[in-house]
């Protein structure tokens, strides 16, 4: 086979790849900043930076027909993705996950199945975007505090990019997340504490040792990867949006990213002004967004002594709390906490009825939805999307086995 | 959202779905059989049955352009898939897995990443096809002997189809496979023995209890699902085929299915006569195909006392041995055994260099390829595809962790 027909050669030369990234904009003080240097939070006010694009240019090539014909994966949205040179893209095949009908949960319920992403979770999207852009900007060493899946993803994409990866995780992070990090060759440290404690260590050591801290929403590009979930949802529903999105919320990058995605699609004329009601789901043992929503606050005070077996929901405080709360309120949505028992029961129901082994964070969305149907907040006639953010395979403790053993 | 714009409504009415399935044909005695009744092996000679299609009709709609525009997944090849009514398709989003360049293994090496299939392995393809067709033919109870991943897949797809599932697995099957089966609600029995012992139990009990036995290649449709790996490979290489395919071989349905796929594509004018050299990889502790290949045999006598930690390779005898050996020989390929240590080392190399946590069966292909490059059987200028048949997440015993623990 001659070299220029291989997929690798094609992707190296991909002449159609272009990004219309223009600048970074602070989500709070609205100041503009240079997108082509390594940036984290707004240097002026310390809040979250968003990547901005020339959407007038992007709309010229991002037609529904063109998008449908591109090779699959989240990088087919390249005009509104942050990487300028396609050879900097670090990809393991992330994106374009199935939207599965789940009629035995409800005739109008779908699961967006992020468990089929590389490294088994939606974290692959954000990390692919962040690592690719960091690679383009010359970063060689990255560090992350993580509840588990983000570290797994960073370890994988970092290995693929040839970067050194430092991961800091709570000591009770699921063992499989720890093993993933190790097999990918990351430097892993377990911390007797929560993800917020890990974040504190990374903050201190990153400056001292020259690591780039890819904590979620403390750099501008993980949200760009996550936003592709929202882009896909629009396309999968025929360039409309469902009535309701139920989303498990730890750091909340998915809600923030999808909300941004839909604004960009509307600006390009690809969807209208309708938005889903955004339902944020947290665990009773760690529900800062739910509390803040109920109390009418714009920010969510961190939870003390956070506990839940759904590791990805054990996030006491989110840097983007104000963006999450605004998206929920602007959409007419709500925030719901579910118990550990409700999560376990929902996990089993989804598996036995629909053949999907969801992560507990994903199962929490079904637990929450059932409550909201019962309360009349959700109606069975509405189109509802539950986000399963990862594979249940990483949480074997949720399933007990006691099987018959026989001789042949 | 009105009902007829939802993805579920669209897939229910999908007017373009048609299968050109015509009959079943015995791969040995060549007799034809009715495809529209429940069939297993050839009723005349006991050998493997293949599904046959009207390829002259199929080629009219299976143009390269049309195929590229269809929604993703293995069911977009519906003209040459066995399900007649699209409402019988039981899908979890299987197929269209990434073909990942792995330049740090070798500039011309790719990994076909089946770890991103539903239930984390390539078994999803065969099982989706078999369960869908069984559903169409009225089957309500299915049974399977399995080394692990096939049972996981059958438990998931069976749950989704509303079937009862009976799985029989060796007592030392990876614990995660057992847990998957349990969470999906399957009836699981562990057997003190090998997959061949499990097969014996299923054979006896299936007749007595009216279960449909979906043992690989003992029914005609799992191979049809597996063949979609070959269809995708042709499309992903721009309607050509790579020089070499390296494939881990337990039951061997993948080799058999892909070989069949390429004949069908050639008959429809979609590819030429070039075929990859097929390299079959087995573990030293269970290498019936390798031995038979080396001894010039047409059939592979079963291995006694099969042992390997790569559970999917612990298959002492394959019902399709004659088809596997013929494909290897017709292609100018070979068969190679690798040691447990070579598998473990290869698994770590793939993860640390390329960010892919392969199953040990998949890692075995890189272990084998390295030997063949060293011997000059493979050349670095050739385009080589390694099949990673599943996610490494199900084999946590391959990774030891001994991590630093610190206080915040």
Automatic annotation (TrEMBL), chains A, B:
Q: Where is the Tryptophan synthase beta chain-like PALP domain?
A: 90-390
Output the superkingdom of the source species: Bacteria
Q: Which InterPro entries match?
A: Ser/Thr_Dehydratase (IPR050147), Ser/Thr_deHydtase_PyrdxlP-BS (IPR000634), TrpB-like_PALP (IPR001926), TrpB-like_PALP_sf (IPR036052)
- Enzymatic class: lyase
Decide whether keyword rRNA processing is in the record: no
Q: Which cofactor does it need?
A: pyridoxal 5'-phosphate
Give the PROSITE patterns listed for this entry.
Answer: DEHYDRATASE_SER_THR (PS00165)
Q: Which GO molecular function annotation, any one, does this entry have?
A: threonine synthase activity
Record's CDD domains?
Thr-synth_1
Supply the EC number(s). Answer: 4.2.3.1
Q: Does the keyword Lyase apply?
A: yes
Keyword terms of this UniProt record: Lyase, Pyridoxal phosphate
PANTHER family recorded: L-THREONINE DEHYDRATASE CATABOLIC TDCB, THREONINE DEHYDRATASE, MITOCHONDRIAL-RELATED
By what name is this protein known? Threonine synthase
């Amino acid at each position: 086979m001659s070299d220029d027909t291989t997929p690798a050669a094609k992707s190296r030369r991909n002449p159609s790849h272009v990004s219309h990234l223009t600048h970074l904009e602070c989500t709070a003080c609205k100041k503009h900043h240079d997108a082509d240097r390594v940036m984290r939070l707004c240097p002026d006010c310390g809040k979250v930076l968003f990547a901005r694009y020339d959407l007038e240019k992007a709309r010229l090539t991002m037609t529904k027909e063109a998008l449908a014909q591109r090779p699959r994966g989240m990088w087919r949205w390249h005009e509104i993705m942050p990487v300028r040179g396609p050879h900097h893209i670090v990809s393991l095949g992330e994106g374009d996950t199935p939207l599965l009908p789940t009629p035995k949960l409800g005739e109008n319920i779908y699961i967006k199945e992020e468990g089929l992403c590389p490294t088994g979770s939606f974290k692959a999207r954000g990390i692919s975007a962040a690592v690719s852009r960091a690679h383009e900007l010359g970063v060689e060493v990255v560090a992350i505090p993580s509840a588990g899946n983000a570290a797994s993803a960073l370890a994988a994409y970092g290995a693929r990019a040839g970067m050194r990866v430092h991961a800091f995780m709570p000591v009770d992070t699921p063992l499989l997340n720890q093993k993933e990090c190790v097999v990918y060759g990351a430097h892993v440290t377990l911390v007797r504490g929560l993800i917020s404690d890990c974040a504190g260590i990374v903050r201190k050591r990153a400056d001292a040792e020259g690591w780039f801290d890819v904590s979620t929403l403390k750099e501008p590009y993980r949200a760009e990867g996550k936003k592709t979930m929202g882009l896909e949802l629009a396309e999968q529903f025929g360039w409309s949006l469902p009535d309701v999105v139920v989303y498990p919320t730890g750091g909340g990058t998915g809600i923030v990213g999808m909300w941004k995605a839909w604004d960009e699609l509307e600006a390009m004329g690809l969807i209208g002004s309708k938005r889903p009601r955004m339902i944020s789901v947290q665990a009773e043992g760690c529900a800062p967004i739910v509390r803040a929503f109920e109390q009418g606050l714009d920010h969510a005070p961190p939870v003390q002594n956070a506990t839940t077996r759904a590791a990805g929901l054990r996030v006491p405080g989110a840097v983007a709390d104000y963006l999450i709360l605004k998206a929920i309120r602007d959409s007419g949505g709500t925030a719901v906490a579910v118990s550990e028992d409700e999560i376990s029961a929902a996990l089993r129901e989804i598996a036995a009825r629909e053949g999907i082994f969801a992560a507990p964070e994903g199962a929490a969305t079904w637990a929450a939805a059932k409550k909201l149907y019962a309360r009349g907040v959700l109606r069975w006639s509405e189109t509802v999307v539950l986000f399963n953010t990862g594979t249940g395979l990483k949480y074997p403790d949720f399933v007990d086995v006691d099987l018959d053993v026989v001789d042949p």
